[in-house]
Design goal:
elongated; three-stranded antiparallel beta sheet; CPE0013-like fold; 2 domains; alpha+beta; 16% helix; binds iron/sulfur cluster; five-stranded mixed beta sheet; 151 residues
Length: 151
């Protein structure tokens, strides 16, 4: 068993919760292909201990996944004036898991016009998450006879 170093070793941060206040939650770390099985002991307010990680990234993942689970979102949106109809975009950072569906819906009818460059922001602060949606591919503008109309 590995104690949570920030809490277990610091008397000022050690949880005063009794064992009956603590429940254990299991998550699979997605930080790398190993997929470590994380056990997170937590009260209603805070994480007490994370076990099962093989690196600090996994420890942080366990805490984050319990307190504020987030997911990256990648999709495509319509583009006009390019040689293809849709351009790939993604959230610049993972967004709160419970907002993934709403963000995907908000992007559904979005259209941009070529040219676009990788990293261009197509929506800033999507749905008030504080996170931008960015283009992930360069697409130059092309002459009208080479364009495909957006759907
Ligand atoms: S804890 Fe570390 S080693 Fe294990 S899956 Fe997560 S990132 Fe990979």
């Amino acid at each position: 068993m590995t104690r949570h170093p920030d809490r277990a070793d610091d008397p000022d941060r050690r949880s005063p919760a009794s064992d009956s206040d603590v429940s254990t939650h299991v998550y699979l770390c997605t930080g790398c292909p190993l997929g470590c099985r994380l056990e997170v002991d937590a009260t209603e307010e805070d994480v007490v201990e994370v076990r099962g990680f093989n690196c600090r990234k996994g420890e942080r993942y366990g805490e984050q996944e319990h307190l504020d689970p987030r997911r990256p979102l990648s999709t495509t949106i319509w583009i006009e004036g390019a040689t293809i109809r849709r351009v790939p975009v993604r959230t610049a950072e993972p967004i709160p898991r419970d907002q993934v569906r709403a963000v995907a819906e908000a992007l559904r009818g979005l259209r941009v016009t070529a040219p676009v460059r990788r990293g261009d922001v197509v929506v800033a602060d999507i749905l008030g998450t504080g996170i931008d949606v960015i283009v992930t591919r360069d697409l130059p503008a092309v002459s009208p006879h080479n364009q495909l109309p957006a759907g």
